[in-house]
Specification:
This protein has two domains: 113 residues, Jelly Rolls; 140 residues, Orthogonal Bundle (Arc Repressor Mutant, subunit A), CATH 1.10.10. 43% of the residues lie in helices and 22% in strands. The chain has a six-stranded antiparallel beta sheet. Strands 3-8-5-6 form a four-stranded antiparallel beta sheet, with no helix packed on it. The protein is globular and about 55 Å long. The relative contact order is 0.09.
Length: 296
């Protein structure tokens, strides 16, 4: 892919970080190799044909992605005039460490793999966003683990529905009691007494999203309630554990699709009700009668 410099960016938290994010617009065919790094790619606009080692070939539409292996060369050919993309590059050692933590098969990503599942493509986008926010290596590792579980969810036996509900309920009570900052997967593993693979699968099967994404949504909704009660956005951000007002603003916009400053400036009667917010965001809503997903 040839990149238009004004719309191409690279983000690496620090020179030794195993994570890097590439964003840009491609305008013509380009061959690439990532030399010892896996590429988790996502097309955000347009369409492209991807070929790896001259063998594996498939078309990627907007909202679809691919896992690109560390060996071989990858060629992308635009099917539209321009293609907007994001690629998360992860050192092979970091992916191997995640594979061992999750006890996944060794041949997990030997071949290039197309990614169409919405939860998996969202996990790629989320990992890219977290890295660009320079959140910290432990957070990156947890999000990488969640991404790998999401990618292989179709190959791993589902968690028993009854057990999944029990696991999620136990974790959910803790997460709702700790809205003042992030909670790591290690904490939840110890709390529920199951491994992170089973825990993440239980959340995906029962709620449709990973534990950390679910908790982030709870914290954002709590911050939103505080703004509704008159708190300034920066105060609500601090109380719900966001590292900075800028981090909170970005996460708020990604989650809800509009700016927190404009939201805070609206009159109370102009703000959506809690029920309307659920419908608009498509988030999980938990009531006294149980858990339900309300479609957007």
């Amino acid at each position: 892919m040839t990149f238009l410099r004004p719309t191409f960016s690279r983000t690496r938290p620090h020179p030794d970080s195993p994570f890097e994010v590439l964003r840009g617009v491609s305008v013509e065919e380009r061959e690439r190799a990532f030399s010892g790094r896996y590429g988790f790619a996502l097309v955000t606009q347009g369409a492209a044909r991807l070929t790896s080692d001259g063998r594996t070939a498939f078309d990627l539409q907007a909202g679809q992605g691919a896992v690109l292996g560390i060996s071989g060369r990858h060629v992308s050919e635009n099917l539209t005039q321009c293609v907007d993309f994001v690629v998360v590059l992860v050192d092979a050692a970091a992916v191997e460490a995640a594979r061992r933590r999750l006890d996944l098969p060794r041949d997990l990503f030997v071949h290039t793999m197309k990614v169409e599942d919405r939860r998996a493509t969202q996990a790629i986008a989320t990992l890219a966003d977290i890295i660009e926010d320079i959140a910290g290596e432990e957070v990156f590792a947890d999000r990488l683990d969640e991404l790998l579980v999401t990618l292989v969810s179709s190959r791993v036996a589902p968690v028993d529905a009854g057990h999944a509900a029990d696991f999620v309920d136990a974790a959910d009570f803790y997460l709702r009691s700790h809205l003042d900052g992030p909670v790591g997967l290690e904490t939840l593993e110890s709390l529920v007494d199951i491994d992170r693979l089973t825990l993440t699968r239980a959340f995906l099967d029962h709620l449709g999203e990973t534990p950390l994404s679910y908790h982030l949504g709870l914290r954002l909704e709590e911050a939103r309630r505080q703004i509704d009660r008159g708190s300034a956005p920066q105060v609500a951000a601090h109380r719900t554990g966001f590292r900075s007002a800028g981090d909170f603003t970005r996460q708020f916009r990604r989650r809800y699709g509009f700016d927190v400053g404009r939201y805070a400036a609206h009159a109370d009667d102009a703000r959506p009700t809690a029920a309307e917010r659920v419908v608009r965001s498509g988030r999980i809503w938990r009531s006294a009668s149980g858990t339900a997903r309300v479609p957007a």
